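Good day; I would like, with your permission, to put a structural problem before you. What I wish to show you is a protein chain and, alongside it, a tokenised description of its three-dimensional fold. Please examine both parts with care and let me know of anything in them that strikes you as inconsistent. Thank you for your consideration; the sequence and its tokens are set out here:

***
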Amino acid sequence: MHLNWLPLDSRSQVYPFYKQFMPYARLTKKERVAVFLAEKNTPEVTGKSEVIAAVRLRPIGLYTLVTGMLIHPDHRGKGLGHALMRGINHEMADERTFIFSLPHLVSFYQQHGFEKCGAPPNDIGQLFQKYYSEEKPLSLLIFKREMME
């Protein structure tokens, strides 16, 4: 399967995907979006592709936030999350890429070079505080390439 980076002017496929499975997600024009596509071959539709997995890279000042990673429910458990993380690895800068992880996904992201971040830069820290709550506890993780070796 090939990772596709969507051009800024060609995101019509990804909006319905997020709306259906992650309705609170808000894509911005500055974000880069990578997707896996699957051919949709039914009697009614042939040769049309559909988004089955996506991840977004959001610039925050000098930093990048990995956000909005989503796998279509019918395709979970097939390694697509790992494939997405491997596919964006070259886009992540050591100690400049962050993710706000749900607690049950921390070990997944640790497999891909992330570790818990104690003292984030101001821009990232402020944004993290905006999203973190008792109802939605998150872990702030930072990418460290040496964790990959």
In short: The two ends are 24 Å apart (CA to CA). Strands lie at 3-6, 32-40, 48-60, 63-71, 97-101, 114-116, 139-143. The chain has a mean pLDDT of 91.
